[in-house]
Amino acid sequence: MLNTMSEQRKALALISGGLDSMLAARVVMEQGIHVEGVNFYTGFCVEGHTHAIRKRDRSRPKRNNALWVAEQLGIRLHFVDVTEQYKGVVINPRYGYGANLNPCLDCKCFMVGKAVEWIEAHGFDFIITGEVVGQRPMSQRRDTMRTVARESGADDRLLRPLCAKNLPPTLPEREGWVDRERLYGFSGRSRKPQMALAERFGLSDYAQPAGGCCFLTDEAYSRKLADLWQARGSREYELDDIMLLKVGRHLRPRPHFKLIIGREEGENNFLQGFRHRFVQLRTVSHPGPLALIDGETGEEDRELAARITARFSSGRNAQQVELRLEEPQGAQRLLRVAPMSAEEVLPEWYL
Amino acid sequence: MVPVRQRLDARHLLCPLPVIRVQDRIGRMAHGEQLEVLCTDPGAASDVPAWCRINGHRVLGIRERDGELVILIEVGGGKR
């Protein structure tokens, strides 16, 4: 008989906020295992940031899906900030990138490896993920799932309850902590088995599985990150850099500088918070955006930046637009420029 | 006895960073102590209480002051 003759076993579930990890945790909880959740913060998480920044999005209800899942399951959730260590994964992935700058296999190895550290520090027995064989082209193939178990150091302490029957028995199955017969054998990209299982558990409200909880899977975001690295001549980044890539229009009219132009009030307010790091431009004669200049610029560059910024203001058809230029140290002055025409703003400037 | 109250500045951080800062600070606090958190991300108004509920802490109040959120938390007994 399972779990009756010995101490209660404990498992740590990687909770992304999506359906699969929620189901995986639920399946194991059903077998009497004590489950707690962990969510790793990389800085590239899509979760909530656009919503928090853009004013027009604020009318929609906001929730952190990982927290919401934990609350639905009735388990504790531990956030772990891995932003610094995660740089090594993004900058130099051993197994390379996916379609964009997404190092999915390295990422999964890294996260399961951090989970191993956590369970060893907290006296837990094994790790649960919501992975399904064949669901993702890079990190969820039979061969790469073996790689994740090996490289992370989890080995047979890594249980994938949704597809366990397609994989060799793991430690919790062999030891009888969980009953393999009550695990699942899902495979492939179909979502139907997960949806049916969700229905069985009475779970009707869950985040839509779009495969995109990470900005690095986004083509436009990856392009901006690649541009940042190229412009700096180094594949380095700070948290502020990757946050700014999520905000505004990014235009690079010259190789040595780019503009980040707010698209609405919420973004302008967010960009305002970076005024001590960048030269900023704000239209004053007409309603318009706030723009940051990223790069070393001379007078001619700043006038060009002002003309582009004016193009995105209500004064785009005016003869002249007045802007306030503020240095990071606080010195301010006014610039009067002719807004660029639509044709003058070259398509290749857009990142 | 007046409970010990600490203050945490989580302004200009986007969720889940305010929650992470709260979690890390509460990890070093004792049962019954209070934490006053300042945030600017409106999402913190739902995320911080959700984190408190699932981890056994009590939100004593949330108010807005000069466009900033002030969340007062009482540390529960079952923290890890």
Question: Notable features of this structure?
Answer:
heterodimer, A: 351 residues, alpha/beta, Rossmann fold, 2 domains, six-stranded antiparallel beta sheet, five-stranded parallel beta sheet, 12 helices, 34% helix, elongated, B: 80 residues, alpha+beta, Translation Initiation Factor IF3, four-stranded mixed beta sheet, 2 helices, globular
Folded structure, characterized:
The complex is a heterodimer of chains A (about 350) and B (about 80). Chain A contains twelve helices and eleven strands. Chain A is an alpha/beta fold and about 350 residues long. In chain A, helix 5 crosses helix 6. The longest helix of chain A has 19 residues. Chain B is of the alpha+beta class. Chain B contains two helices and four strands, in the order E-H-E-H-E-E. Classes of the chains: A alpha/beta (about 350), B alpha+beta (about 80). At the A-B interface, helix 2, helix 3 and strand 3 of A face helix 1 and helix 2 of B.
Structural class based on helices, strands and sheet pairing of chain B: alpha+beta
Helical fraction of chain B equals 25-40%
- Alpha-beta content class of chain A: alpha/beta
Superfamily (CATH H level) name of chain B? TusA-like domain
Number of DSSP strands of chain B?
4
User: What do we call the CATH homologous superfamily of the largest domain in chain A?
Assistant: HUPs
Strand count, sense and barrel status of the largest sheet of chain A are: 6 strands, antiparallel
Question: For the terminal residues of chain B, how far apart are their CA atoms?
Answer: 25 Å
Biggest pleated-sheet summary of chain B: 4 strands, mixed
Mean pLDDT of chain B: 91
Topology pattern of chain A, helix = H, strand = E: EHEHHEHHEHEHHHHEEHEEHEE
Fold-level CATH name of the largest domain in chain A: Rossmann fold
- Beta-strand level of the residues of chain B, as a percent range? 25-35%
